[in-house]
Write a structure and sequence with these properties.
By secondary structure, the chain is mainly alpha-helical. It is 61% helix and 0% strand. It starts with 5 loop residues before the first helix and ends with a helix.
Length: 76
C-alpha cells in the first residue's frame, strides 16, 4: 500500500471503522480514529484531500497546531 496517496490510506481506515475489519493498522473505532487525528493535528477531512489540496492541508494543520499549543499554554 505504500504506493498509494495518503488520502487513500485514510479512506481505508475510515472504512474499517465502519466495517470493523482492519485492513491497515488496528484502529476500528471512529472515535479512536478522530482522537488520533486530533492529537496529531491532522484535519478530519484528510480522506477527502489529494495533492491538489496540499496548501489547504497545511493551512488547516497550522491552525490545529496553534490551537494545541495555545490550549497547552493556558493549561499551565
Amino acid at each position: 500500500m505504500a504506493e498509494k496517496p495518503p488520502c487513500e490510506h485514510f479512506r481505508t481506515v475510515f472504512i474499517q471503522c465502519e466495517t470493523k475489519e482492519p485492513k491497515l493498522g488496528n484502529i476500528t473505532d471512529i472515535e479512536i480514529l478522530k482522537e488520533n487525528l486530533r492529537v496529531n493535528c491532522i484535519p478530519e477531512n484528510i480522506a477527502e484531500m489529494d495533492a491538489g489540496h496540499y496548501e489547504d492541508f497545511l493551512k488547516e494543520r497550522r491552525k490545529l497546531m496553534a490551537k494545541k499549543i495555545k490550549d497547552y499554554y493556558y493549561s499551565l
